[in-house]
Amino acid sequence: MERKNIELVKQLRHGLHQHPELSNHEVWTKQHLMEFLQTHTTLELVDRGAWFYAVYRAGEKKKNLAFRADMDALPIDETIHLPYGSQFPGISHKCGHDGHCASLAGFALEVDQQGAEHNIFFLFQHAEETGDGAIQCSSFIKENNIDEIFAYHNMSGMPFQSVQVIEGTAHCASKGMSIHMEGTPAHASQPETGVNPAFAMAKIIDSIPEFTSSDKNKGLVLCTVIQVDVGEPAFGVAASKGQLLLTIRALYQEELEQLQNNIEKLALEQAKKYGLKVTFSFQDVFPETVNHKESIDKVREVSRRKGLHLQEMTEAFRASEDFGHYTKLTKGAMVFIGNGEQYPPIHTVEYDFRDELIETAVELFKGIAKV
């Protein structure tokens, strides 16, 4: 990677870090990235509202390769001292999406200056953290006949600048599930005259170990209780309303759906037993992210050719990634670049993206673009 480009995108990364924006609010971030590419490249830019992409055209009969970066930050205070620290209280780039964007912008600089053998699409996606972004951007795949798409995520607990790959599922599928139950209130001295949802909710919670048992599932299945909210803090009134928040997660999409069906079925049975009204709602919905072997093989080949430290992962990440929406539509892969084995984990206050990863990512992407 050209030294001048490295310094330019480091400055870009630090500017993005100072101006973090939450999912679906990446207005300044998007505009700043577009202005950067307009100033420093001749690439075609396509504005799609909440997101955008840039294009390098090599020719009509060339392959269409896409590379994606996510733009959003997290609702976490910046408590460590950085010369480019977050200027917005309660919001910071504690997942490294500022680094992902800087890496993709650096890759765009190099392609614009040096050319490429294929048509290259640089996708800057919003709202990865909430799972809203990729599903909104997924039309991009068919509209541009994308043959293959790649992305990377920085990860702690892995050797510094190592390239980590895994075939098949790389990230579990997950979703936030809310169960709302409503009965009728009663005086606390006469609970039999009302309808209390507490017992039904307790039954659902008690059944979680059975639903997630490894004896009944071929892959990892998890159900995490996030919140139990039943009744009001008034000792004279029996509870009549309640809400149970769960995060359900599975290595395989079909087992996530089966877990959801089991919980819904039990909730409906309990509602009928106790005379309750029950409704369900969902948010933060992520598909499983599945890597294609052909795409991972390209990453392996490029890593070996460029002398990058390549390691094979033995299991998928439990945490989810909305990149899976793209690999349901075309070939592709999510790969990981190590922050260091002892480096603070992402989503923690001690974390900051390591600028050295930018060049590793750009060189990896450049190599893939030539395969």
Automatic annotation (TrEMBL):
Gene3D superfamilies: 3.30.70.360, Zn peptidases (3.40.630.10). InterPro entries: Amidohydrolase, Bact_exopeptidase_dim_dom, Peptidase_M20, Peptidase_M20_dimer. Residues 170-274 form the Peptidase M20 dimerisation domain. It comes from the Bacteria. This is Amidohydrolase.
